[in-house]
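User: I'm writing a short report section on ligand binding and want a predicted complex to refer to. Could you take this sequence and NDP and write out the structure as tokens? A short remark afterwards would be nice.
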Amino acid sequence: MTSNRFDLRGKVAIVTGGNGGIGLGLAHGLADAGADIAVVGRNEAKSKAAVEDLKARGVKAISITTDVTDKAAIAAMVDRVVRDLGRIDILINNAGMSIRKPPHELELDEWNTVIQTNLTSAFLCSKLAYPALKASGNGKVINIGSMMSIFGASFATAYAASKGGIVQYTRACANAWAPDNIQVNAILPGWIDTDLTRGARKQVSGLHERVLARTPAGRWGDIDDFAGIAVFLASPASNFVTGTAIPVDGGFSVMA
Ligand code: NDP
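Assistant: Sure. The structure tokens for the complex follow:
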């Protein structure tokens, strides 16, 4: 172990959806601790801006335009990270989206889109990055769940199913890969101010006020609230922590 348990210098991280929102907040934490970063997303302009932002923190950063629902594209992305950055130590499965409809109105193709983007993508990225994570000797997988991993909401039909699935998938991988010294954990964000929730606040009336009233911290989360947990779960500091689902929610999940 290094003398600084939180030191990520020499490590390489993939962050899906790392070009904005919570993914960029997680990437900031990793870069500030010294990790080189591969940003994975579809929007090239957003990815380019994120890479410049991360490079300015003194690390190598690349962007790889990838749709995380496409297995062949993920395989090519993983190969490119190993080729260009040399290794993979950290995988953050963060890319996600929602289609907000009650169960009786959600169409099958909408269900499939949400499940494939939020859950199947984590399976594919983890499976395809596994050989490199194992070769790292101390691999780390961080999956992004949600308060919908714990609670339900009438408008979060496929979303809640996908985020509940992420927690159970995390536990399965933690068991499977412990012998390889790979730790697999989930982060459950509370309500965070991003493009995703800006959309939700437009669609769901009263949401903004309800979140404020129900969050003990008395505020929405910010993407910077994710830098610390990213470093902890990606570093040797968490080597005996695996299979957990850690809320980063200003107390939302413990408010009676
Ligand atoms: P954003 O909409 O800001 O970010 C979503 C990210 O996912 C974008 O970077 C987007 O990249 C990427 N993405 C979406 N679909 C795909 C795809 N098919 N292929 C590749 N990349 C994709 O939202 P958040 O930052 O809020 O969300 C990040 C994660 O956090 C999600 O998993 C979300 O469910 C979760 N979360 C968010 C909460 C919140 O309050 N904001 C609360 C709980 C969980 P691009 O635009 O380039 O496609």
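A remark for your report: The helical segments are 21-32, 44-55, 71-85, 108-136, 157-177, 195-203, 207-214, 227-234. The pocket of NDP is lined by residues 16-17, 19-23, 41-43, 46, 66-69, 94-97, 117-118, 144, 146, 189, 191-192, 194-197 (CB under 6 Å).
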